[in-house]
Amino acid sequence: MSDPQDWTPATADPGLRRPSREQVVAGLKATVEGGPDLVQLLTPEGERVADPRFDAWAADVDVDALQGLYRDMVLVRRFDREANALQRQGQLGIWVPLLGQEAAQIGAGRAMKPQDMAFPSYREHGVAWCRGIDPTELLGIFRGTDHGSWDPIARRFHLYTIVIGNQCLNATGYAMGQKFESKVGDGPDAEATICFFGDGATSQGDVHEGFVWAAVYDAPVVFYCQNNQWAISEPLERQTRVPLYRRAQGYGFPGIRVDGNDVLACLAVTRWALEECRTGNGPVLIEAFTYRMDAHTTSDDPTRYRLADELELWKLKDPIERVRVNLVREHGVGQEFFDGVAAEADELAARFRQFCIDMPTPGPERMFSEVYAEASPPLEAQEEAYLAYLAGFAAE
Amino acid sequence: MRREFALPDVGEGLTEAEIVTWNVAPGDQVQVNQILCEIETAKAAVELPSPWAGTVGELLVQPGQTVAVGSPIIVIETAEAEPAAAPAPPPAPAAAEERGPKIGEAGQDGRIATLVGYGPRPGSVTRRPRKRPAAPPPPAPEPRPAPAAAPATDGRATVPLAKPPVRKLAKDLGVDLRTVTPSGPDGVITRADVEAAAGAGSAAPAVSSGGERRVPIRGVRRATAAAVTQSAFTAPHVTEFLSVDVTATMQLRDRLRADRAYRDVKLTPLAFVAKAVCLAVERTPELNARWDEDAGEIVYHDHVQLGIAAATPRGLIVPKIRDADTLSLRELAIVLAELTETARAGKTPPSDLVGGTFTITNVGVFGVDTGTPILNPGEAGILAVGAIKPMPWVVDGELAVRTVCQLALSFDHRLVDGEQGSRFLADVGALLSDPGLALTW
């Protein structure tokens, strides 16, 4: 019989004692700094720090590109705040705020190539923005008038998935298809898939199954977990006893933790991971270590279950502010640029608001029109019967 | 243009919310998304941003008020002109307009459309009627409802037709709907019909409902029930009793009544009890404290907010004497008289009913000797004062007739032990049997 200790991987320092349960839980608190494995290229103070593994993946990001990332994040945050207000004014049934996760989403979204495919959950407004989906196209779902307004195939961005973790199965299956159809390789047209989910989803069977299948089929899928520390009211310590990125080790593929509030690091790490997948070295798990600054949805009140000191701590790590500081200090970008972006954001918000208020309610035919790609006689019969039923009512 | 902002459903299926605070006042200029107010729902406390820029015209809801989703809460005057007779062409397709008013705007019937107003509003029927077939209906297996002229004695019309508010009115007025002649269309009994039938007085036979009377539970009765039930099942009550010879206090009262300073003061025994309680609390502060379960703390109050249980036409209410421990006997007597008068007149403001720290209930006025009072929620003690009457009493080994009163003290055993409770009750008793003791404290 062998000693059970032989089955556990050796730590870097054999003299280190295994941490106690309390120490493990303490390491999973939202107030920890992310640990020594955290990949970071921009500190919260806006200082560019070197990283021998990932500098090359961000080497082409010049001042123009950095300004572009800044603009992305400001615009996304602006329409996110506007949507939150619209919900409070009775114009949206619900809104899922992304406040605080702009860098994690813009970094990943801008790392994708046009041919890559993305499977979002329901909070990926920033990724949608990077895929060229106009923010107004997100409104139908949250106003309850539509199930999704864009063509997932044309935009290479799947519809929002509300069921937690379910998209991991879809993404894994899609990536397996990419592999079977020989879309993986060294050529410029090679494809990969990226799947977005949260820390809470990691407790779902769907995510586990996705990991297993992706691993054994070497599927070209990047599992991009935005660990925003809270699954509605459940803290991370209710999901796991190891940092999430280390779970990948158990499935047999690489896992990496990146500062989710550092857009440059998210961009570099996701570029690397997608390239790994495109060239046949997938899958990869990325844990973007970030924080949900607002409520889970507009129906939630986080003050009931979490302490304000966490929020204050994470305010200091704001993803937009560190880019702004870097642009000013290291690139001498002037105030007129920031004013211009702010003005553009206000224009976007005004257009977004007006679109929402004027949004037509689609007719009942819309429920049937996108169910199948081709006409289906049973569905046509259902549509006909339903329209006849509705026509049977007197006018109000 | 005058626009009304209706309370939205901020949390997927809520039906109502309480306005906590207003951040704006009539006359204020507001911007789009400027915070108007904070509301509290069953799910969350949230801030409502303004949907328009303009001037606040009117606040339609007071803080503390709970309103249904879809109710207008604020009027904002925007810079836009009132819509002309022909409304400006909407940017949305006309088809959308036909499906009803836009979210947040009043429709033709004056109701304000909400996106997810699940909550049914009283008196509103949202189901649209089925279209009547253009052709004459096929012979129905069942006869159609009686037409307007049908007599109420029609054997088939066993259920009189009336809208729910009219049914309630009939019930309140004791009118049997089966005896009312309908005047509304399709044989529907109207409000006027019911009122006419009630006015006919004895013409309508009195409805006997089997020797019982049913009264809706509401208002003070409901609040009292909730408070005593909560108190009885959260605070473990202990009650102690003490019979006190209050002859000396009554003699003191007679002397004080002759004093010029008390000429216009209604000096009741209750004032002496109130004073004794305030003095005793200083020696036993546990009785003037509160168990805060949420904070895991016992809260000691610096001053006594003395509740006086009063029977009023509306029911039991407990107005408070603020900082009773800072008042002299004369001041206590004056405040007590005012408090009682206001309560009997039903004019006690809600602010006088909250924030008590100790309560006295004067069951003696009903001629009762004693009782086991139930604590006001959030208080540690309550003292019941029984009837003051002559009783046989042993004085110096001999029977004598003395003026005697029974005290009953209930206290919250979570923060008051038998020792403190007993000392407090003994102190109150000692002060009432020998008021001069107060000099020594």
UniProtKB/TrEMBL annotation, chain A:
Its cofactor is thiamine diphosphate. Residues 71-344 form the Dehydrogenase E1 component domain. GO terms for biological process: branched-chain amino acid catabolic process. It comes from the Bacteria. One of its GO terms (molecular function) is magnesium ion binding. The keyword Manganese does not apply. InterPro entries: Alpha-ketoacid_DH_E1_comp, DH_E1, PdhA/BkdA, THDP-binding. Gene3D superfamilies: 3.40.50.970. Residues 1-20 are annotated as: Disordered. The keyword Oxidoreductase applies. Pfam families: E1_dh (PF00676). Keywords: Oxidoreductase, Pyruvate, Thiamine pyrophosphate. This is Pyruvate dehydrogenase E1 component alpha subunit.
UniProtKB/TrEMBL annotation, chain B:
Belongs to the 2-oxoacid dehydrogenase family. Signal peptide: none annotated. One of its GO terms (molecular function) is acetyltransferase activity. InterPro entries: 2-oxoA_DH_lipoyl-BS (IPR003016), 2-oxoacid_DH_actylTfrase (IPR001078), 2-oxoacid_DH_E2_comp (IPR050743), Biotin_lipoyl (IPR000089), CAT-like_dom_sf (IPR023213), E3-bd_dom_sf (IPR036625), PSBD (IPR004167), Single_hybrid_motif (IPR011053). Residues 2-77 form the Lipoyl-binding domain. Its EC number is 2.3.1.-. PROSITE patterns: BIOTINYL_LIPOYL, LIPOYL, PSBD. It comes from Pseudonocardia thermophila. Residues 82-162 are annotated as: Disordered. Its cofactor is (R)-lipoate. Keywords: Acyltransferase, Lipoyl, Pyruvate, Transferase. One of its GO terms (cellular component) is cytoplasm. It is an enzyme of class 2 (transferase). Residues 161-198 form the Peripheral subunit-binding (PSBD) domain. Residues 134-148 have a biased composition (Pro residues). It holds the Pfam family Biotin_lipoyl. This is Dihydrolipoamide acetyltransferase component of pyruvate dehydrogenase complex.
